[in-house]
Amino acid sequence: MSTVVLIGAQWGDEGKGKITDFLAEKADVVVRYQGGNNAGHTVVADGKEFKLHLIPSGILYPGKLCLIGNGVVIDPAVLIAELENLAAQKISTENLRISPRAHVIFPYHQRLDRCEEERKGARKIGTTCRGIGPAYMDKAARAGIRVADLIDPEEFPARLEDALQEKNRLLNQVYGAEGFAYAEILAAYGKYAEIIKPYVADVSIIVNEAIARGQNVLCEGAQGTLLDLDHGTYPYVTSSHPVAGAACLGAGFGPTKINRVVGVAKAYITRVGEGPFPTELKDALGDHIRTRGHEFGTTTGRPRRCGWFDGVVARYATRINGLDCLAVTKLDVLSGLEKVKVCTAYRYRGELITEFPATLKVLAECEPVYEEFPGWAEDISNIRRYEDLPANAKNYLARLAELARTPVALISVGPSREQTIVTQNVF
Ligand code: IMP
User: Fold this and answer.
1) Best substitution site from 127, 225, 264, 360 to test ligand 1's pocket, by max atoms within 8 Å of Cβ?
2) Domains plus CATH for the chain?
3) Which of 208, 200, 233, 204 is nearest to 320 (CA)?
């Protein structure tokens, strides 16, 4: 019985949704602890495709408790659309619980996100424009509105009025943009509050009780290590902490309770948004991986930049998150390539670098040092046992594990639950 934290070991979009869904079968509780609807998880269950942004993918299994922790920022309109969508597909959401301490995203957060991106021009972050950054800014500024305030009819109107006064001034006077009408937001969010209220419960208590009962708890990270506010490629990062340590903070339990940390990494690497990317393939091969891997954002539909697996990044993710093992996803996408490459180190101004640099200035000048492997022609999407993988695919995986300095526990060879090879049990 254990608490497992699952995180993205790259720049997000590693296939965490699929792995969470796979592991959720053995979990009693699944909890989201950071980010918001900037995340997008595509899960294929029983031949049906589900796109989830906020609700933990454990919801697709009946009877699992699914929690949205205090560290998440919630856009109620998106949450409600997701609830309705699941209901339409006959998926029960009665086991969903939402922390009263989670912060709420408002339309002014989204507009401010967009205005700030426009102001930055060529230096823009390439955010999802979902208002995530501005909502976390309010949280840190101690000016945010939390779920507890939203569902309190005595508290909410005054909080909103106060926030809106400041935000409208900011929008009008700093950005020259339109503000929002108080009555409209009050009415819309009043309705949202009614729908959300039955789901609100103290997530920290629920998680700690589950741990005390010896149940399996799965903490589902969003985004990835290189998008972490502290450890990522700052400033091209998100405003929360996708790393494993943040699970404690964002769900409300102590570090002594974590038993295992799983890093999800694609067999190659992708990134959306701006910023340096040493192993990026800007050629036909990059296009091939993008098309074969369906590398287009679940949230924004943006094409993802694609490149070879980066061993320096993998090692960094192991160090920052204390990874116990890797789940390697989308190995099937590389089938049919004559040769596959892996980056083992960077060359910076003639010097060999084996650890991920702290500044973008250095990263932008890093040239990848590659090792080349013979590829495998076979379609591996129907393979279920490690032994049955082509020898070249096994060699490739072995090298990824060596570079990451952590073993591979799971290998995903396709989007469905069944297309998963287990070499080590996670729970
Ligand atoms: P924000 O989280 O919308 O503020 O965006 C900040 C950066 O994180 C941008 O580069 C986004 O493309 C990236 N980002 C945010 N969420 C995800 C995700 O779920 N997958 C991949 N990239 C993401």
Assistant:
1) 127
2) 3-99+200-261 (3.40.440.10), 103-196 (1.10.300.10), 265-422 (3.90.170.10)
3) 233
Half-sphere exposure of 220 (CA within 13 A, CB side): 34
Tokens, residue 156: 């909410």
Confidence category of residue 44, pLDDT binned at 50, 70, 90: confident
Mean pLDDT of the chain: 96
DSSP 154: T
Kindly tell me the sign of the dihedral angle through the C-alpha atoms of 147, 25, 406, 261.
positive
Residue 272 beta carbon below 6 angstroms from any ligand 1 atom = yes
- 204 burial (CB, 10 Å; 0-12 / 13-18 / 19+) is middle
Span 329-346, average pLDDT: 98
Atom 10 in ligand 1: residue holding the nearest Cα: 273
Q: Which of 128, 237, 360 to mutate to test ligand 1, by most ligand atoms within 8 A of the CB atom?
A: 128
CA nearest neighbour of 101 among 239, 213, 249, 212: 249
Query: Would you say 304 and 391 are in contact if contact means Cβ atoms under 8 Å apart?
Result: no
Which pLDDT does position 1 carry in this prediction? Answer: 74
Check whether 15 has a pLDDT greater than 90.
yes
Other residues' Cβ atoms within 10 Å of the Cβ of residue 87? 11
